[in-house]
Amino acid sequence: MNDSNGSKDLADSADSPPRPTGNVGGSPGAGGGALRGVGIGCGVLVAVPVLLILGFLVTYSVQRGTPEDYERVAPQAMMTRIGDVSQESYEVLGFETAVGSNASSDFCYPDGLESMADEPVDGAYSLSHRWSVDGVSESGAASALKRLHRHLKDEGWDIDSYENDADAVYGLELRASRGGPSDDGGDIRAVFEWRDYDGRFEGGVHAPCAYDPDAGPGSEPATDAGSRVEPLELRP
After folding, report:
1. Confidence class of residue 199 from pLDDT cuts 50, 70 and 90?
2. 74 CB-near residues (< 8 Å, 6+ apart)
3. Mean pLDDT, residues 140-147
4. Which one has a higher pLDDT value, 202 or 28?
């Protein structure tokens, strides 16, 4: 009798369909949520670079459309300014001979993102005034630079570098700067150097960028400013 009941139970189990387990038939669950999360994550990854590129392009366009804040100064007036700095420095250095000088000019390039275009600012120039003295001894150059270093500091210049050691590899040097009339125009820079291989002492004053008021259609390029100015002769 026990064997008969056992056989009946086995038969009933064999005829019964298997019970479903888990989510069957496309019921919503963790799998669908994971897919949605992946989709949102991919969307964010795509959107961030696009926003960065758009921000870059907007900033670049704004900078390109904004003129540089340079002062408007005629080249000869600028030559007088930096020539006065050269003359004052020359008097402090204490050399005993009068020397001639020369002027040169160069392009001005914008800062920021628009500098990537590598295009000079239309109508702007950068003027330099240079001079030299031959036959200067090392001790004479060292003493002269020491006086000028102290003078420029007293006058509020920033000392960018000062090499007054006899063991200096490249000779003796003094570099100084001070702020120009506008942030865009840059600093006024003064450079004084003595090189042991030729005994020549060289000085130079470099003006910040400025707009040439006479630059325009049909005029000479602003970079010709150096050829249109008269540099002064420095005197002790």
Report:
1. confident
2. 212, 213, 214
3. 95
4. 202
Q: How many helices (H) and strands (E) does the chain have?
A: 4, 8
- Beta pairing partners, 32: none
User: Is there a contact between 127 and 226 (Cβ–Cβ < 8 Å)?
Assistant: yes
Q: Is the pTM of this model over 0.85?
A: no
Place of tokens 């026990």: 2
The H or E element spanning position 203 is strand 200-206
Write phi, then psi, for 197 (nearest 5 degrees).
-75, -20
User: 61-75, 95-109, 157-171: lowest mean pLDDT where?
Assistant: 61-75
With 0-12 / 13-18 / 19 or more C-beta atoms within 10 angstroms meaning exposed / middle / buried, residue 178 is middle
Structure-token pair, residue 194? 């003595």
What backbone phi and psi angles, to 5 degrees, belong to 192? Answer: -135, 130
